[in-house]
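Usage

Read records sequentially. Each one opens with the input sequence:
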Amino acid sequence: MTDEFLVVGQVVSAQGLKGEVRVLPATDFPSRLTEAGPRWLRLPGQAPRQLMLLGGRQLPGRDLFVLRFETISDRTAAEALVQYELLVDAADRPELEEGEFHVLDLQGLEVRLSSDGPSIATVLDLHHSGNDLLEIELSSDGRRCLVPFVEAIVPEVHLAEGWLLLTPPKGLLD
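and closes with the structure output:
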């Protein structure tokens, strides 16, 4: 992914007959899926295309949003968007509370087991799947692991210094 855009969801299906799509969110900011304005759609490996989001709503009791775009007016056009990533401009960063982080700020951080210890891994990504999971790549063998991004396991994040502290339970990195 380029630094120009942030992935905030993925189109998973068409909704109804009038061009709406269902989107699985990949953001902690629902306004990115509900407020009108420019968005971009992209298939992995392809250039993004801009569309105007007219609005969106969350499906009651589900982790899915229904979105409507300006030029998508029927089911066939909506079905053609399935598997596309929904993007926003990377410069469009909401203000964060204490202890919250933007995905781009976490990517590339060193992972340490002690504050003065060596790097054991690098943060590749943050996945939203019910619970936030950090994807890390171990320096020793290149293996990738998913680590719950909770304070008990990741008690310290030092963005300015470029590292985070990991206190993994037994077996997590095996």
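Summary fields computed downstream for this record:
- The chain has two domains: 5-89, 103-165.
- The first strand starts at residue 5 and ends at 15.
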